[in-house]
Amino acid sequence: MFGSCLNYTTLRLLGEPKDNNDALARGRVWILSNGTATAAPQWAKIMLSVIGVYDWSGNNPMIPELWLVPRFLPIHPGRFWNFTRTTYMSISYLYAKKFVGPITPTILSLRDELYNVPYSKIDWNGARGICAKADIRYPPSVIYKVISTCLNKFVEPILNFWPANKLRERALRHMMEHIRYEDDNTRYVGLCPVTKALNMICCWVENPNSDTLKRHLPRIHDYLWVAEDGMKTKIYDGAQNWEITLIIQSFCSTDLINEYGPTIERAHSYLKKAQIRRNHPGDQSYWFRHISKGSWALSTVDNGWGSSDSTAEALQAILLLSKFPPNLVGDPMEEERLHDTIDFLLSLKVL
To answer: What residue stretches are annotated with the Squalene cyclase N-terminal domain (predicted)?
Structure first.
C-alpha cells in the first residue's frame, strides 16, 4: 500500500490522467480493494497529509517535544539510529506544523480516487491505527497503541494551546536548528534521499524564499539518473568510495595494476581527496554526531557521514597502493592522515 499510494499520487501530480490509463486504473482498483489510502503505513500517511490527500488527524502523534526531554533518557530521539533519527526529526516538524500544500483540482480529485467513501465522511481517528496487511512487518504492540491513544486524546490537544504551545514553538526551533546543521554538514545532499526530501520540505515550510531552500534544489540531481527506460532515483547518493576501494584492491591483487597504472593513479588521487579531513563543527554530542576526521563516507566527501566499513576498505586500498612505485600509482597518503583514519576506526571499536 505504501508504494501503491505514493506512486499513484506521484503519477497524478505529474499530469497523468486518471482515465484512459490502464496502469493507474489497475492501481486504483488494488488500492480501493485493499483498504484505501487509510490503510497506508505511517510514512505514506505523512506524505499524503503534506500534499492534502490525507487529514493530519489521521496520523499517530509524533510530538516534537520529545527532543526537549533530558538526554539521558532512553526515549530521547538522539539515541535513535541515525536514519531513524533524521527522518523522524523532519516528520515531527511537519506533523507539528500540520502543513498542507496548495489544494489544486488534482488534489481534490485524488481525495475521491483513493477512498471508497466521501473525503468529508472518513473516520480519521479510526484510520490512525489502520495499516494494510501487506505492509505490516511487526504488528504494533498494545503498549504502543495505548501510548498513541493517550498522546492523541490528551497530550496533543494540551500542547496546541497556550501556555503549552510555547513549549512546542521551542521544540520546533530546536528541530529546525538540527535540520539546518544536517543540511550544512552534508552540503545539502542529506544522509539519504528520504531525509533530503523531508528536510527540503521543512525548509520550504519555514521560508519558501530562503537561501537554504535554494541550496537544496541543485543537489536533487545527486539522487537522479537516466536509464534506458527513463529517469530513476537512487536509495543513496551513490557508493563511489566503496566501489573504488574494492576495485583498487582487486587490481592490486593481480598484474593488471601494471597494465592500467594511469587509471589506478587517478583512482588513488580521488580516494585521497574523498577522505573527510575534519570533524563537524560544534559539540559532537550536542548534534548527535560521531567524530568524522580521517574517515570515508560510502559515497562522496560531501555526504559527510563517515562509515566504518568504507573507511576500513579505503585504508586497506591506500596501504596496498603504498607498496607500488609512486611513478606508477601516485604518491602515498601522508602518515598523519593515516593516523586520523586509525583514530576514527578505533573510536568505533572496529579494530
So the answer is: 6-226
